[in-house]
């Protein structure tokens, strides 16, 4: 994987960037950086990586606009669940800023009228002091694959979500309730794309990810075995490996061969342009795994 990320850095340099493009990761409904901790630990040692919260309003469009005012000029973008929905809206609004895309446990389709109506009792319950019950209903136990750490993962996610408060839940629920179809934005994107899902995801099943991958000209589907809706925590090593391969992919309009004009370029001081630095090996850690 270190070799894969090393190639990713060289690719970005040949494309004119200053090394590795930053990686921006977007969590799901009431999510925090907790869902990406294993990937942050592994990837942040070899490229700039960050997690952006889904703030900014009660429409997906407003959240995307809010994020675009804060994110780098160009970045690799990965979104999980609701984060994937926001990532698609960012792609629709500013495709020139997204160098590559990773969509996990998500869907490009809007809610049906029946699904949209189902948010109303959840919003009422959250406002009446039952946020934890609401979160447990949104992410039930069987949405993750059976494993010894399943309850530990879920309890951590519930606690993190409760710490964000009911008002944020209401805003995010309204945003999901009124989201629009993103199929056209996906069809237009030509950059390297990873569509990733857990084989046992009951919330956004495999067929939905197969559908997304078929829409996109340069998409690769990766199914994570023994994982459900939160593969980043359920099978962190598999997910990080898939993301490392995605980050190392050469974009369709880039040549894998070295560019002689760049290799012989000189600095303003007249010296040779230094080669891209070698990258250290990745360290893969699951903080929720008990010894």
Describe this structure in words.
The chain has 14 helices and six strands. Strand 3 (75-80), helix 4 and strand 4 (98-104) form a beta-alpha-beta unit. The chain has helices at residues 2-14, 37-43, 60-68, 82-93, 113-117, 119-127, 131-138, 150-164, 166-177, 183-188, 206-215, 231-234, 236-248, 260-263, and strands at residues 23-26, 49-51, 75-80, 98-104, 193-198, 219-224. It has 291 residues and is of the alpha/beta class. 44% of the residues lie in helices and 11% in strands. The longest helix has 15 residues, at 150-164. It has a six-stranded parallel beta sheet, with helices on both faces. The chain has a domain at 2-111 and 180-251: Rossmann fold (3-Layer(aba) Sandwich). Helix 1 (2-14) packs parallel to helix 13 (236-248), helix 6 runs antiparallel to helix 9 (166-177) and helix 7 (131-138) crosses helix 8 (150-164).
Secondary-structure element pattern, one letter each? HEHEHEHEHHHHHHEHEHHH
What is the averaged pLDDT score?
A: 85
Low-pLDDT segments, ≥5 res? 5-19, 254-291
Spatial ordering of strands, largest sheet = 2-1-3-4-5-6
Can you tell me the CATH architecture of the domain at 2-111 and 180-251? 3-Layer(aba) Sandwich
CATH superfamily of the domain at 2-111 and 180-251: Alpha/Beta hydrolase fold, catalytic domain
